[in-house]
Amino acid sequence: MNIAFWSNVAGKSATSGNMLAVSTMTSLLYSLKVVLMQVDYCSKSIESVLEGKHDEMVINDNFAYYNQKGMDDLFDKIKLNNICEEDIIDNMVNVKDTSMFYIPPSRQLHLGVEERENGRNIETLLNMMENIGDINFIDNINGSKYLSKKILRHADVIVCNLHQGMEDMLDIMQNEKLMQKTVFLVGRYDSNSRENIAHIRKKYGIKREQIAAIPYNISFHDSIQEGKVVPFISKNIFSKRTDNNFDFINNLFNATNMILKKAGYHEAD
Fold first, then answer.
1. Which end of the chain has fewer CB atoms surrounding its CB within 10 Å, N or C?
2. Over the stretch 210-222, which tens digit does the pLDDT of each residue have?
């Protein structure tokens, strides 16, 4: 199951942070095997957010981590028509104490090398990953670039990330085929804004069960900067109503369940 996180604009909807939060909650709470892949080369890299200190966060087996080439190694094998599922597994890094893995991102994508060829490579990779992870989360390129559109077409579920006050949603709202597999997530949400969930639903005609919000939380923001997302969510996952991070965790829980339900995991209801 491939779930793509995407926004039509960059830098406003916390797309990458939302994906990291949801994927971590999915792994910790439901013990599903989660594989992360980052195509959005403009955002902070997944590995820098998840690995923290090498001796604390990432399992390093005889320094195998440092020999990982990630997506570029897989792209090279795809070009040679010499790739198997074992190659993908060998290029995945396990995040300690979780059922979560990530593939180190591509330098080729960062350099903008041959976008259409990379599109074919990613399509092949996503098809093969269907048999490896229970859920594969893709941090997609924001906007309407060729590669972004290709990933949206091949994703099983699209999480469209919104920000309050957002305009110009017609590019996805008018695409019936994409809308059938889309849910909406408002990042950095402020319930005091006039552009609250009720207003956004009315504005775009979004059903209640198709939209959720993750509020801005300074502690979670700091955990991203420090590479401590997993410890932060692990520590707060069973927060009580009186705890400082309860609102964030509770909304993250609801958002995660909405996305998993769209993906067919009804046990998360």
1. C
2. 999 999 999 999 9
